[in-house]
Amino acid sequence: MLPQFNSDYLSGSYRGRFAPSPSGALHFGSLIAALASYLDAKINHGQWLVRMEDIDTPRVVAGAADEILRTLDAYGLHWDGEVVYQSQRHDLYQDVLAQLSAADLIYPCSCTRKALKQRGGIYDNHCRARQLSPEGNALRLTQTQPVYSFTDLLQGEVQLSNALAEEDYIVKRRDDLFAYQLVVVVDDIDQQITRIVRGADLLEPTARQISLFRQLIGDAPDYAHVSLAVAQPGFKLSKQNHAPAIDNTRPQPALCAALRFLGLPVPDELQHDSVPTILRWAEQQFTLQALPRHREIQVSLLNDGHYDFTRLTA
Ligand code: GLU
Ligand code: ZN
Description:
Elements: E1 15-18, H1 28-43, E2 47-52, H2 64-74, E3 84-85, H3 90-102, E4 106-109, H4 113-118, E5 138-141, E6 149-152, E7 156-159, H5 162-165, E8 170-172, H6 180-190, E9 195-199, H7 205-217, E10 222-226, E11 228-232, E12 235-236, H8 252-261, H9 275-285, E13 296-301, E14 307-311
Helix pairs in contact: 1-8, 1-9, 6-7
Keywords: Aminoacyl-tRNA synthetase, ATP-binding, Ligase, Metal-binding, Nucleotide-binding, Protein biosynthesis, Zinc
Binding site for L-glutamate: 17-21, 53, 180, 198
Protein name: Glutamyl-Q tRNA(Asp) synthetase
């Protein structure tokens, strides 16, 4: 456990967050994650924070972070406190890495993706005892807290393979960037997040994140993974499959469609109300328990601008 962190905040008041990667404008899929985490925070009288996950600099698109904030504003999703930017927090991440390293839990690894593929896909802790130089290599965390299963508030019991649970995963990449798995947990601790509501594409990585929470503070927040909006089975809505940016000038249709996606019985007339009225209605209707529990829901944008949903995986 690290001296500057402890788990006391987990029993304190609700703090949730939305953590977009500014690799493009918000599309319907990211609106769902934003809206679900926002509504859950609101009905629990909690704080709702926004964090820009701009640590993966090659994927960051200039102007996207500001555009995302403008969209959240247009959709009435007003955040508490200052927006946190991961790109400005290198010292914090470096400090945590140094402490893990001082505890002898960090080691360099030279395995390429290709080599791992040939050895079965999952890293087999091959470089643990090799004493490689950090120069030009990735850094991995020795896994001392393997998580074989966990309970998600929506998806229920999630089981991991032993190989995945016991894998020493990368915390700093070969290209010298801090890995998502490290910074997401350090930030969630630093921002004292008590419940994480996000898309089900992050269900499996959650086991790693819980293991790092246990390593750092001995406990972990609650997780709720909302059905993922996909264009085709297995393919989440993204810029790559041409998910259009959502409309900032007329937010009502996409907002109402996102609420329908979340299982709320949105009356047709609601579309013609103001954004604050729609959100107030949603706060009265929303419960985590009533959300669909499918891993994926296929979204089709119809020609008339309506959205159509097909629930895919139970
Ligand atoms: N930045 C991640 C994404 O956009 C989400 C991280 C998280 O919610 O933990 O996919
Ligand atoms: Zn290796």
